[in-house]
Amino acid sequence: MLAPLLFGTIAQLAVGQIWNLHKQGHLQIVFVLTTHSLTSFPVIACLLGDLKILSSELGRLALSSAIVSDVFGTFLTSVTTMAKVMDHSIPIFIRDLTLLIMYLFFVVYVARPAMLWVVKQTPEGRPVKKVYISLIILLVLASGLLSNFYHFTLVFGPFILGLAVPDGPPLGSTLVKKFDVITNGVFMPIFTTICMLKASPHDLKFSTPLEKANAVVVSVIVISKFLFVLIPPLFCKLPLKDSIALSLIMSYKGVVEMATYSFARDSKVIDFEVYAFVMATILFTSITVPLLVNVLYDPKRKYGGYQKRNLMHSQYESEIRILACANRSDNSAAIINLLDTSCPTKENPIAVYVLHLIELVGRASPVFISHQLQKKTLTNYSYSENVILSFTHFQRENEGATSVSVFTAISPTTYMHDDICTLALNKLTSLIILPFHRKWSADGSTVESEDQTIRSLNCSVLETAPCSVSILVTRGHVKNLNSAASKSETYRVAMIYMGGKDDREALTFCKRMVKDSCIKLSVINFIGVSENGDDDENHWDRVLDNEMLKEIVQNNVVGNGHVRYVEEMVRDGTQTAQKIRAMANDYELFVVGRRYNVKSTQTVGLDQWSEFPELGVVGDLLASSDFVSKSQVLVIQQQQTS
Questions:
Q1: Which intervals hold domain Cation/H(+) antiporter C-terminal (predicted)?
Q2: Residues 368-410: pLDDT tens digits?
Q3: CA–CA separation, 245 vs 250, rounded Å?
Q4: Cα 540 to Cα 519: distance, rounded to the nearest angstrom
Q5: pTM score of the predicted model
Q6: What is the rounded distance in angstroms from the CA atom of residue 323 to the CA atom of residue 633?
Q7: Residue 360 contacts by C-beta under 8 Å, 6 or more apart in sequence?
Q8: How are beta strands 468-473 and 431-435 bridged, if at all?
Q9: What is the 3-state secondary structure (H, E, C) of 544-556?
């Protein structure tokens, strides 16, 4: 921001001398110079949201830069306004300054505590009372009127008050839901249309010195801003395409600048000709910048790679890194139970990275929190408190065998897969565990609810993840393997094997389980009686499958766990389904490979009835409402390498 201001000021002084501008012309150029040099945070956040890169690394970098520029711009505008008032009348300046300080004290020590009190008084899951919403609306209107009356900008008071509103549910989300449709759906299109209609193409003549000077200064600002935003990322070894995309994003202008220039035109601060030119530049950037950024920046590009980051290629008796995702606090028990089955020991430790996913509502920018770096202690109103406590307890029960790091991602569900994949990439995880989008009743007989946004999230992660991915289907009550009663019981696990890379990955996970003497693993190999082995790829898969099963076939016991190997000959998918249904209540956990789009004799005909392709044919069968069982289901997809 400083570079455009500096170079714009130099250009303004130069063109003023060349074209001999009058005082009013200088003031108009200074206004355009200041406004065009700023970067508006709401505009950048809206652009990133439209481009669906709000949670990407580039998006977060742009948001951080924009908020610094916006805060500096607000401070600069306030100082300029106060200086003008002081130049006009010192008593009025003292009065306005006193009222400003009083207003800030009111917001910090009255409005903010009152809103926090409203949050505390609202039961979880219940809406905020209408009377509180009405009072906040009145405060917004009053703050706007006072700001305008006491020589501040109209939006200054509401802006400061908005900073005091607690983000997220219940208050922030309620305010967004109340006003989002009417403001963004009705008022915003009408306002932008009116602003553009005020600008006439006939005013773009460039016939007067003021118009020429304005065009030169705006061009200098745009070019200098683009170049000076481009240089630091390149110096930090950011790819050229990403650096150019960041420069374009920071040069973007939108509704905030449009409103500023519209108010200035109505107040006769700038002429019609100047207004027409700046509106034309805003229209040009709003059309070209999104198109260019879409071409230059692809957030999925960094996830693609050739490095093997899956369970099969992890070193034997080495630490396994797992990213466990939870969108509800009740996901924790099922995930912890699954981690317990993987038998973490000091010789085979597990590093667990827990990501609590919260939908972004009631705030503009996404938040990513590392609770290890968080200095604040937990409060009763911490979103992730239950998740943190559950996994902290899990770590204590497996002291020395597990390490747990908890994170919280607050972002729109459309972009949550970016948070998941980025964390998996940065932490070098071998497996991601995702919860299924269906919530079952306590007895596992009926579906209580479905969350289609979570289903879309799971599908996005399966497509872009930099490592292996699993989806955990939880039905009924989850048995705690660490309880005293459970340690004396046998936990039965069935691995349904049909061949292929996903099944080999799933079997690798199962092999870790059998080191626990409480776990009994049954590997059930379904073999198609009419399989054709002539295809080279199928032949190579068979070789790998035989090698993978060799240890299971030759040894009934691996480590201290019990292993049973069974071969089932089937003619088609119908016979496979019958055999799987027959064992519905024989096991506490079924583990299967996803085998997406894999055609085989064992599943012929089943894909026509598949409801959830993200689970694969067999996983879909095990997770269907027709499959009467209380068993948990784990569906694993091996890392998709380039």
A1: 493-639
A2: 888 876 555 444 345 678 888 889 888 888 888 899 999 998 8
A3: 9
A4: 32
A5: 0.81
A6: 18
A7: 366, 367, 410, 411, 412
A8: parallel
A9: HHHHHHHHHHHCC
